[in-house]
Structure prediction request, 469 residues.
Amino acid sequence: MKKLVLLLLAFLSLQLSAQELKLKKGAVVDNIKVGDSLPYSFSLLLPSNFTVNKKWPVVFIVDYNNREKQVIRLMASIAEEKGYILAASNNLNDTISISKNILAFTKTFNSVVGMLPIDENQIYTTGFNRAGRLASTIPAFISNIDGVLSYSSTVGNIEIINVKKPYQYIGIVSGYNFNYTEMLANKELLNKLKIPNQLLIEESRNNWPSTNNLATALDLFKMSAMAKGNLAVDSLFINNNYNTTLTTINNLVAANKLKKAKNLIDQTIMVYKPFKKIDSLKDKSNALRKNKIYKSLKRAENNVWFKEQSLKNDFAYYVEEDAYTHNFNNLGWWAHQTKEIDKFKNSTNQEQQKMGYRLEGYLVALTNDYIDTVLAEKNTDYDALSFLYMLKTIIAPKDYDPYLKIISLSAKNNDFGTSIFYLEELLKNGYTDADKLYNLESTTLLKLTPEYNALIEKYLKKGRYILKE
Prediction:
């Protein structure tokens, strides 16, 4: 049975409740109140060997709309293994301003630092996807953040990083993710600014980072603290990690995965330079750079990136142009583009395959951004909105919400023909919620039509207003 830790919240200046709070070790505790009179709360995970007799590193999880609970559970086993406290504000939201999100985060930060024995030289933030930009912005407002871990997101604003006291930046991204090329460019910019950083590449198309890369990131934070003199150097820890990395490098070279090998060598040089002589690694990096196979792989990669950037530029131009000119006639061209993207995705060439998935993700994100922009305008352009929803059904046919939006918008304009067309497309793609179809906004007359009911009856056997012959 897990032991309970009794923590006395004595920091009234931080507006914490002056009562005893029972926290389980080794388990996530949700909805801990910042203060009795404040609408802020956070989730917390203490390692099972937690004790108040030593100071602990902490990772503050930054995510939106209740996803922080998923992230804290994803990282729980790694935090337990590596000896980190995890904390996450429950009040962050991507629909509110940065300043309000920073305020909510600060409430959690002050509460955790005030109530627990935190090592002030090992405080980190992490954010996934869009929240990664907020995680990398927070150090501009809270100066003693020592590192940022960001998954699939670039630095929010490089200009506000204190280059005299930069934090350690670690990015994780999949080669299939549409932010992949941006994160590579982000790394180059951080290098030019001499801001310490590493980029870990995921090989799968999963929406979440692997536990291996999360564990590596926490180890990199620990080594960064040692290099800065904020933590005693653990030679055994350094040597074990170094030898494991050398084995991985040798295996990659043996398998002719030379791009991955060189990237890992260059990263290893940066990480272990404060602790070891790395001349042999520099020689190995230079040898790979001159290798014919490596050069060929880099040329192929550069050719793919050039084509990808060209297509992204086209997509960015035509989405805006077609939306604001209400160019519904160009939906056929967009359908053709998705077929071309599918060809890339199904290519036997892995670089082209990854490009296909990146282009698909980019087009979905771009369309979503324009939808948000139109909805935020004072006078909503419903024709532009309709075009964007129609485009979304082409590029993401299994995302059902745009179909429902078109059905509702078209019915509102008495364009029942369009509503019926998108209803059938929706049902063809596997939609099954008949109750929602009969409760859509602005469909009072539409849902009484024989065509609407006949389609729901045909695909779902749940037509409500079927005329008996």
